[in-house]
Each structure stands twice: as C-alpha cells, then as structure tokens.
Amino acid sequence: MNLSIEEINKLIYEKSEFIGKLTSEISKVIVGQKYMVERILLGILADGHILLEGVPGLAKTLAIKTVSDAITTKFQRIQFTPDLLPADLIGTLIYNQQKSSFEVKKGPIFSNLILADEINRSPSKVQSALLEAMMERQVTISDQTFKLEEPFLVMATQNPVEQQGTYPLPEAQVDRFMLKIKVSYPQKEEELIILRRMSTGKFDKVVPVISAEEIISARKVVKEIYMDEKIENYILDIVYATREPEKYGLPQLKDLIEYGASPRASISLAAAGRAFAFLKRRGYVIPEDIRSIAMDVLRHRVILTYEAEAEEMSSEDIITQILNKIEVP
C-alpha cells in the first residue's frame, strides 16, 4: 500500500510508543552503551541478525538478555563451545520405546530471540546449522522441515581477543548478519555507576513492555517508510564504491579491497536506514540515516587484501574514505 508521508508519520507515532518504554527498561540494567542498545533495536525493527564484537566484560550478553526480558517472547541463550554439535542446536530424532518409533526433539533454535554466545568458539558445522536457520527461517531434522516462528532474530557475540581454540566465521557466513557492532569500553563516569551498582547488587527488575505481535506490527510500518530515489542511488554509490573505487575517484583503494560489499549490503542499508528513521520517529529516510548505519552494515562485508593488512588499513578506514568521498544527495 502506498501511504502519504503524513499517514506514515501518524502510523509511526502510534507504533513507536514502545521505543521509549523499551529503552527505559533496558537502562534499569545497562549503563550507557547507547550505541549498542540502539543497534540491537535496529536489528529487531529491520528483521536483521546482529553480530556483536568486543572484549569480555562489556555487557554484550547482558544487553541482549535485558532486551529479551523487556519483550514478551521466547528467548534462548546458547553457549557455543568446541564440543557443541548441530543436534544440540536444532534438535534430533529420539526413539520412543512405548510407541516403537522415532520422534523429533526440537532444539533451542526453536525460539524467537536467540543469543549465540561466543559463536566463534564452535566448529563450522555448528555455525552452518545456525546460519542456515538464520537465512531460511526453517530447520530440517531428518526428513521433516519446520518453519521457525516470527519474530526470529539471532544476536551473536564474539570475542576478538583470543585466537586459540576459536573458529573464525568465514566471510561468506558473516555476510548473513545485517549488522556487525563493535562494542567499546564505557566512559569513566558510566563505569563508576556500574561499579556502584555491582557492589550493592541492587537492580530494578525488568518487565516486558512489548509483545511479539507489536514487533511484527512495527516492522510492517518500517517497510512503509518513504525512501526517495536519490537515497536509493546514494546507497548504490556507497556499495559500488567498495567494488570499483577507481570509478568514484578513489584509485588508491583499488589494491586494498579484495572483495567489495555484496547486494545483501544494499538491501541491508535500505532496511536499516528505514529502521533508523523509525527510531527517530520520521516517515522518510534522509542521507544522515544511511551515513549513521553504513559502518555497521559494511565493516564485515569489505574484504581486504594482504597489502591493506600490511599497511595496517582496516575495512573501517576504507569505508570512512568512501563515505567522505561519495556526494551526499
């Protein structure tokens, strides 16, 4: 349905009321980390899976758990370990002696919000089982296929510090996450509040303020948010500049990029841009929305050459140069 900007704004006003309540509930437990919390909400609204990367102790797991506590949905935390098997994730067939037949025992993947904790600690077979469920939104056990309930969202964490005993996610699989969020240390003032809260052990109880149905309803409104053709072309210019930088006046990047961002990046930029506009209670997308979320959408999709690594260039450095060069509509 084609709605006017006024109609979309009215819908957003009605459907976005929960954002303030949700943020308020999360702040009962999480101090600061506004960027991380906002990006988690973006993923929920844009129906895109999220990968959080940061050193231990930055409340990545706690933030995801707190968000799930504030939503009336089924939540499962899966701790990824080297001995985890795909069956531990998706389920398996068990033999029922009374009925003399095999029955399906569903695994923890059959939930709405999945926390895949330290995803890079499990071998590729387990990672593949999860990532298949993420893309297909279904699970096959033996010869039976089961659709996963909506909303279905995977929020994975990984620790960039340790290399021993970890299995880095292949680039093609990382591409299936809409956003890759880099979590940083809190400010000194925020850490003082954390210190005091943890020493007393007093936390306000988080209560659910939104249902799964309301999330699905909000997602429908997000899809209606207006995106001008100029914004669409701006998205394509950013993505194409990662593939053919010399055509965009960035010849110095040609030998630094092995592979540019895939079409999935364009789709994710558009979806996350609309969700960002929704968070800002706006019925249309502006260039600043795209610039705000471009790093989270692209940092794991731009694959660098050995030359870039030798020059100590990161994908973020390259994306920054592209964003600074591409003309804003």
Strand order of the largest sheet: 3-6-9-1-10
Assign the structural class, choosing from mainly alpha, mainly beta, alpha/beta, alpha+beta, or little secondary structure.
Answer: alpha/beta
Q: What name does the CATH topology of the largest domain carry?
A: Rossmann fold
Helix content: 40-55%
Q: What is the string of SSEs from the N terminus onward?
A: HHHEHEEHEEEHEEEHEHEHHEHHEHH
Number of helical stretches of at least 4 residues: 14
Query: What is the tally of beta strands?
Result: 13
Strand content: 15-25%
Largest sheet: 5 strands, parallel
Query: What's the pLDDT, averaged over the residues?
Result: 85
Describe the structure.
The protein is an alpha/beta fold and 329 residues long. It is 46% helix and 16% strand. Strand 7 and strand 8 (144-147) form a beta hairpin. The longest helix is centred in the C-terminal third of the chain and has 17 residues, at 263-279.
Can you lay out the helices and strands and say which pair or pack?
Layout: H1 5-15, H2 17-26, H3 34-46, E1 50-53, H4 60-69, E2 71-72, E3 75-79, H5 86-90, E4 91-96, E5 101-106, E6 113-117, H6 124-136, E7 138-141, E8 144-147, E9 153-158, H7 171-174, E10 179-182, H8 188-200, E11 210-211, H9 212-224, H10 229-243, E12 257-259, H11 263-279, H12 287-298, E13 303-304, H13 306-310, H14 315-325
Parallel strand pairs: 1-9, 1-10, 2-11, 3-6, 6-9
Antiparallel strand pairs: 4-5, 7-8, 12-13
Helix pairs in contact: 1-9, 3-11, 9-11, 10-11, 11-12, 12-14
